[in-house]
Write a structure and sequence with these properties.
The complex is a heterodimer of chains A (95) and B (488).
Chain A (H helix, E strand, L loop, with lengths): L4 H10 L9 H16 L33 H5 L5 E2 L2 E2 L7
Antiparallel strand pairs in A: 1-2
Chain B lengths: L5 H9 L5 H19 L2 E4 L1 H17 L10 E4 L26 H7 L5 E5 L33 H8 L5 E6 L5 H7 L2 E4 L19 E6 L2 H11 L17 H4 L8 E5 L9 H16 L3 E5 L7 H16 L18 H12 L2 H14 L5 H21 L5 E5 L15 H6 L5 H6 L3 E9 L2 E8 L5 H14 L16
Parallel strand pairs in B: 2-3, 7-8, 7-9
Antiparallel strand pairs in B: 1-3, 4-6, 5-6, 5-10, 9-11, 10-11
The chains are: A mainly alpha (95), B alpha/beta (488).
C-alpha cells in the first residue's frame, strides 16, 4: 500500500513532526514499505479472538489515594530549556 | 587465563585479594585503552565510580558487604541515573541529566557497585544494529567491521570486550538477546513485569523489559536476583515471589523436554548457524534431555504485529518529547506548533521519526481496528501457540538470529530486512515470556547464540538449563580478540 505525499504530511502533522526538510517521496516510500508488512495480518483469521494488551491479562494497578511529598521542583526544572519563576515558558498561545 | 566471573570477583573482593578501587581502576583503564575502537560507552563516570569503590572497600573492611558489593558494572543509557547524562542514544536527550535514578539503578547502587558509565544503544532502543545511535555506531569486539547487534549493543560489546563484567540492557523485540548472540555473551530477558521499568525510558510499554547481560548464566543468576524486585512506581511491576536463582543452577537436566519448532530451522536460517544450534541441542540430549517437535504456526505474523504495536505505543510514549520540560528545543519557535514540530524533527533521528509516524498512522481515525486491534488479536494467537507448546515441553530452543553479526552498513539501506531478522526474538516479547541467549558456537569467527524460551516465571529453570550447558561446554569462555588482556 502506497501512501501519498499528502497522507504523509497529514501523519506528520498528527505526530507533531516537521518534515519540511525531508524528501517526501523517499519518506513515503519508506513508510509504505512497512505498511506492506502490516497488510500481511489481514490474512490471519482472528474471529472470536480477544485482543491482548498484557501478557498476563493484568489490569492496571492503582496506587493508594493519598498525598505524598512533592517532587523537588527546582531540580526538575533545572533541566528545562526555558523556565521562569517555576513556570515552563512556551511561545505565546493566546493573544 | 579467562576473565573472572562475578562469583570469582566477589570472592576476591570479600577475601581482600583485590580492592574495589583496584578493580574499578583496572576496568576504567581498559575502557580508556579500547573504547575508542568500540564506542560502547556514551558516558564514562570515572570519578563517581571511584567514589563508590572507596565506599565499597570500606563496607567490605567492616565485614557487612552484600554479594556483588564493589564489582564494577555499567547501565544501558536508557536507564535514568541521577546527575548523569541519560541520552537514550538520541540528540533529543543530549543535554538530559536525569533528576532521579531508575529503580534498577537504585537496586545496584544500594550494593555499592561502582557504575563505570552508560552504554551506547540504538536511538530510543529502536534498532537491531546499534547504527541508529546519535553517538555513532558501536563495533563488534569480535570483528570491528561488524555490528554488535542492538539495541543494547553497547552493553553487549563492553561485556564481550572485557571492559565491564556486567551491564544492564532492555529488550522490546530482542534487544538483549540478539546483541548477546552477536557478541558471544549471555543475556536474559525476564518475564514481562519481573523487573521494574520505573526510570527506564519507554519505547513500547506493553513489551519493554529490563534484564542482565554478562559472561555466563551464573553471572546472570546473581544479577537477576537484584533486578527481580517489586516496585509500586511501575504499575506493571509484578509482586512475584523470588526463587533462589543461584541454588536452582545445579539441578540435573535428566528428563528435560526440549521443544524444537521445525519452523525455526527452515528457509532464511544460515546453514552454519543451523549446525551450531543443532549441535547445542544434541549436547543437551547427551545430558539426558529429550527433544519434542512443537508447532508455533502464528509466529510468521509476529514481525508484522510487532511493527504495528511497538510503533503505536512509541508514538504515544514519545509524545512527551516536546521541547518544553526537558530535552532538545528548537531555536526561535514562532508558535507552539512550530516549537513542537521543529524540536521533535531536529531531536529525533530518522528511524525514530519513521516509527512514530507508522504508529501515529496505525492509531489514527479509521485505521485503529484494522491495525492496532488486529495486531493485538494476532498477539493473542502467538501467545496461545507458546502456551500449547509448553504443555508438551519445558523449554523451547532455536536460534536467536538467522545469521551471525552482519557488517556495519550492510542493512542500513534496507531496514525491512533488519526488521525481518528479528523473527525469532519478537514473538517472545509479544507473549511476554522469559528467554535467554547463550553462546553456542562460532561461525567464521563470529559468535552464535542459542535461544532458550520458557514459560512465564521460569527464569530459574532457564538459568539452570543454561548453566548446565556452560558446565559441559566452553563456548561462553571463548573471548573476543579485544578481551584477551582482560584476565586479572
Amino acid at each position: 500500500m502506497a501512501l501519498s505525499e499528502q497522507e504523509v504530511l497529514k501523519i506528520a502533522k498528527l505526530a507533531a513532526l516537521d518534515v519540511s526538510s525531508q524528501d517526501l517521496t523517499q519518506l513515503s516510500a519508506k513508510l509504505s514499505n512497512v505498511l506492506d508488512l502490516f497488510a500481511q495480518l489481514q490474512q490471519v483469521n482472528t474471529d472470536h479472538v480477544l485482543p491482548m494488551a498484557h501478557p498476563l491479562d493484568k489490569v492496571q494497578r492503582l496506587r493508594v489515594d493519598q498525598t505524598v511529598a512533592d517532587i523537588p521542583r527546582d531540580k526538575y526544572q533545572a533541566i528545562a530549556p526555558a523556565c521562569e519563576q517555576g513556570l515552563y515558558l512556551v511561545p505565546k498561545v493566546i493573544d | 587465563m579467562n576473565m573472572m566471573s562475578l562469583t570469582e570477583l566477589n570472592q576476591a573482593l570479600q577475601t581482600k585479594q583485590i580492592s574495589s578501587v583496584e578493580l574499578t581502576e583496572f576496568f576504567l583503564a581498559r575502557i580508556a585503552q579500547h573504547d575508542s575502537q568500540l564506542n560502547s560507552f556514551i558516558t564514562v563516570t570515572a570519578e563517581q565510580a571511584l567514589d563508590v569503590a572507596k565506599a565499597a572497600d570500606a563496607r567490605i573492611a567492616r565485614g557487612d558487604a552484600p554479594n556483588l558489593c564493589g564489582i564494577p558494572m555499567a547501565h544501558k543509557d536508557i536507564f535514568c541515573t541521577d546527575g548523569v547524562l541519560t541520552s537514550c542514544g538520541s540528540k533529543m536527550l543530549v543535554n538530559f541529566t536525569a533528576p532521579y535514578d531508575a529503580h534498577i539503578v537504585s537496586q545496584f547502587k544500594a550494593l555499592d557497585m561502582p557504575m563505570l558509565g552508560k552504554t551506547n544503544m540504538d536511538e530510543f532502543a529502536m534498532g537491531s544494529s546499534n547504527e541508529s545511535s546519535y553517538f555513532g555506531a558501536v563495533k563488534n569486539p569480535w570483528a570491528l567491521d561488524a555490528v554488535p547487534g542492538g539495541s543494547s549493543g553497547g552493553s553487549a560489546a563492553a561485556v564481550a570486550a572485557g571492559l565491564v563484567p556486567f551491564a544492564t540492557g532492555s529488550d522490546t523485540g530482542g534487544s538483549i538477546r540478539q546483541p548477546a548472540s552477536f557478541c558471544g555473551i549471555s543475556g536474559l530477558k525476564p518475564t514481562y513485569g519481573l523487573a521494574s521499568r520505573f526510570g527506564m525510558v519507554a519505547y513500547a510499554s506493553s513489551l519493554d523489559q529490563a534484564g542482565p547481560m554478562a559472561q555466563s548464566a551464573e553471572d546472570l543468576a546473581l544479577t537477576l536476583d537484584v533486578m527481580h524486585s517489586f516496585d509500586y512506581r511501575d504499575s506493571t511491576s509484578l509482586d512475584q515471589p523470588k526463587p533462589n536463582y543461584m541454588a536452582a543452577l545445579s539441578q540435573p537436566l535428566a528428563g528435560l523436554r526440549i521443544g524444537v519448532p521445525a519452523s525455526y530451522f527452515g528457509d532464511g536460517l544460515d546453514a552454519e548457524v543451523k549446525q551450531v544450534i543443532e549441535a547445542a541441542v544434541a549436547e543437551y540430549e547427551k545430558m539426558g534431555a529429550q527433544c519434542v517437535a512443537v508447532e508455533l504456526p502464528n509466529q510468521a505474523h509476529a514481525v508484522a504485529a510487532y511493527y504495528i504495536l511497538a510503533p503505536a505505543e512509541a508514538s504515544s510514549n514519545l509524545s512527551r518529547f516536546d521541547g518544553v520540560r526537558y530535552g532538545h528545543r528548537c531555536g526561535d519557535p514562532k508558535d507552539l506548533a512550530d516549537l513542537y514540530e521543529r524540536s521533535r524533527a531536529e531531536g529525533f533521528g530518522i528511524e525514530v521519526q519513521k516509527r512514530i509516524m507508522l504508529g501515529t498512522y496505525a492509531l489514527s481515525a479509521g485505521y485503529y481496528d484494522a491495525y492496532y486491534l488486529k495486531a493485538q488479536k494476532v498477539r493473542r494467537l502467538i501467545q496461545q501457540d507458546f502456551l500449547t507448546a509448553f504443555e508438551q515441553c519445558d523449554v523451547i530452543m532455536g536460534p536467536v538470529a538467522p545469521t551471525p553479526a552482519f557488517k556495519l552498513g550492510e542493512k542500513t539501506d534496507d531496514p525491512l530486512s533488519m526488521y525481518l531478522a528479528d523473527l525469532y526474538t519478537i514473538p517472545v516479547n509479544l507473549a511476554g515470556l522469559p528467554a535467554m541467549s547463550i553462546p553456542a558456537g562460532l561461525v567464521q569467527g563470529l559468535p552464535v547464540g542459542l535461544h532458550l524460551v520458557g514459560p512465564y516465571f521460569s527464569e530459574a529453570k532457564l538459568l539452570n538449563i543454561a548453566h548446565q550447558f556452560q558446565l559441559h561446554t566452553d563456548w561462553h569462555r571463548q573471548v573476543s580478540p579485544l578481551a584477551q588482556g582482560a584476565a586479572l
